[in-house]
Design goal:
This protein has 214 residues and is of the alpha/beta class. It has one domain: Rossmann fold (3-Layer(aba) Sandwich). It is 34% helix and 13% strand. It contains six helices and seven strands, in the order ββαβααβαβαββα. Strands 2-1-7-6-5-3-4 form a seven-stranded mixed beta sheet, sandwiched between helices. α1 packs across α6 and α3 packs parallel to α6.
Amino acid sequence: MSDYKVVPGPEAFLPPAAAQMGIALPDPGEGHIEGRIVPEDEAIEYAARKLLAAKVPTIFPGPLVLWHWNDKAAKKAACIREIADALPARLIPMADYRPKYPKIDAAVEINPNHPNLTIWHNKIDVCIFVGVHCHQANLALKIIRGGTDCYTIALCAQAGHEDACLSLRDVNPDTLNKLTACIKKLKSEGVKSEAEPFEQFKFSRENRKPAYLS
């Protein structure tokens, strides 16, 4: 058992891969919290509490849920919108993985190759990765852990992400709905959202950006 914990940084200029430090992925029905394997429901509640305690909770939806490429993606997108509304949380999309040079508007889009810039600009303290291809998520999660103090949550449709502070695997609409229900339950029990007021940016066809999660 590794003593290493996957916690917010800044950790190092070149943070080690969590797998290299002995962090294992969860089995089906499980999640991991900072490298500790737990039942899925425990990880969902922990994620809900972290998100409600955040000043700038932010969801980074990736191409797998931004684009209506099948009905399952559309269902997930609707569930993600419900999570954002329940918190409330900002939605900053990662529409594709091409480098955003020479400039990116960090207020409205995450740079997949330099996600730390978007986090610094928006002062994000807790974020969710969802619908991001695993290879790109692993890269971005390491960069965030290395250079920021943002708590990362990865909601993965595959085996999960050891480089996130908290990760769930095999995520589907039911899993996302469980997270929404947990957030609403905690709020009904008196747990207040600490999120700072904000105005959600919405993409439109006029500026030739994807009308995501509408």
